[in-house]
Specification:
It contains twelve helices and twelve strands. By secondary structure, it is an alpha/beta fold. Helix 6 links the parallel strand 8 and strand 9. The structure holds nicotinamide-adenine-dinucleotide (NAD), 3-isopropylmalic acid (IPM) and manganese (II) ion. 3-isopropylmalic acid binds next to helix 4.
Length: 366
């Protein structure tokens, strides 16, 4: 379906906790700069999520925030959580009760997490050629187990979660992944644990069924443990990966390690219409919050994903991506990527990206 670019968009900004507000601030500046050049009018409205919402309202996802999100075209999220709230029970916890509930209530099932080499010397790989799109199922699986709990049992205590998927849940994420693979290099790795788990056996059967509609895509099945190793040994052989919620959570941080920093991985969580939630893959990084040392690239690149996937402005998205790549290439780097070289602050990195967006010849609305 051809998507016409929006002329006006309403974006809800939920910057959350820890480094969330710092990286979101830079993402908003880049988003505004790119949108202005593309003739896209933006209305940005701020809402509370996570620990910040708990402090103000007592709950991690207030009704006002949910209503704001439902009335928006897209969401820009920072990060949630921190030592102050991480011990709270699930429904009052910034993660499960805030961010995960938001993904689930809005049915944002397709979590796209692209990883590509932007700073080769920051990668631990000998040959850093990473260009992988991880497609993580985001509203099912072990995270949303229908049966979970914790109880005393005689002299011990039991805690349990269950991994369950319906065929429909697997089918819709598989279709998204095949479509994306067909538009890239045509290679899809489906990752599961079908040698052990029933839910993975179903996953594999359904992915095989969907494969028959995509003869142009080469499909491989890998067990998650093997995949974790193959990603280190031969990342260049991967194009698109599709996997279950928890496996995707773990593998996406591995991808971040392969490209050198969590500060480089953006994400977008989509449903079947244009609506999406855009956020860096990293968390609230309490160890560096407030020091000006956090890398805002992942958040800025998430804003680019929003322009492409929700707002239909491909060239404005490309403007941001080009600007981030070129700023990094010139050696403007936050401490996570600076190595022995000089490091810049979060806001200086953001300044450089905005200047680069504005320097480039104006993009045509796409
Ligand atoms: P984390 O991603 O916050 O940090 C892991 C490590 O990576 C830390 O050393 C941190 O300083 C570093 N790091 C992360 N992002 C960085 C960036 N942009 N630039 C430079 N360095 C960066 O994960 P964690 O420490 O396991 O969790 C901290 C808190 O964040 C917890 O409360 C956790 O629940 C939460 N969390 C939230 C999200 C989210 O909101 N999407 C994701 C992961 C973790
Ligand atoms: C992520 C995060 C979240 C997740 C947490 C904060 C609930 O780790 O987006 O990767 O596990 O999905
Ligand atoms: Mn994670």
């Amino acid at each position: 379906m051809t998507r016409l670019p929006a002329n006006e968009a309403r974006v809800a900004v939920l910057s959350g906790d820890g480094v969330g507000p710092e990286v979101t601030h830079e993402a908003v500046r880049a988003l505004r700069a790119a949108a202005t050049r593309a003739g896209l009018g933006l209305t940005l409205e701020h809402g509370l999520l996570g620990g910040a919402a708990i402090e103000e309202t007592g709950v991690p996802l207030p009704d006002d925030t949910l209503a704001l999100c439902e009335a928006s075209d897209a969401l820009l999220v920072g990060a949630v959580g921190g030592p102050r709230w991480d011990g709270l029970p699930a429904d009052r916890n910034p993660g499960p009760g805030g961010l995960l509930r938001l993904r689930r209530d809005l049915d944002l099932f397709a979590n796209l997490r692209p990883a590509s080499t932007l700073v080769p010397e920051a990668s631990p790989l000998r040959v850093p050629t990473v260009d992988i799109l991880l497609v993580r199922e985001a509203v099912g699986g072990l995270y949303f187990s229908p049966e979970r709990g914790r109880r005393r049992d005689g002299s011990t205590e039991i805690g349990w979660d269950t991994m369950s998927y319906t065929a429909e849940q697997v089918r819709r994420i598989a279709v998204v992944a095949f479509e994306l693979a067909a538009a890239r290099e045509g290679r899809l790795a489906s990752v599961d644990k079908a040698n052990v788990l029933e839910s993975s056996r179903l996953w594999r059967d359904v992915v095989d069924e969907v494969a028959s509609d995509f003869p142009q895509v080469t499909l491989d099945h890998l067990y998650v443990d093997n995949c974790a190793m193959q990603l280190v040994l031969r990342p260049q052989d991967f194009d698109v990966i599709v996997t279950e919620n928890l496996f995707g959570d773990v593998l996406s941080d591995e991808l971040a390690g392969l490209v050198g920093s969590l500060g480089l991985l953006p994400s977008g969580s989509l449903r079947s219409d244009r609506f999406g939630l855009y956020e860096p893959v990293h968390g609230s990084a309490p160890d560096i919050a407030g020091t000006g040392a956090v890398n805002p690239a992942a958040a800025i690149l998430s804003a680019a994903m929003m322009l492409r996937h929700s707002l239909g402005h491909d060239s404005a998205a490309a403007d941001i991506e080009r600007a981030v790549a070129s700023v990094l290439r010139r050696g403007t780097r936050t401490p996570d990527l600076a190595g022995a070289g000089p490091a810049v602050s979060t806001s200086s990195f953001g300044d450089a990206v905005v200047a680069e967006i504005e320097r480039h010849p104006a993009a045509e609305a796409s």
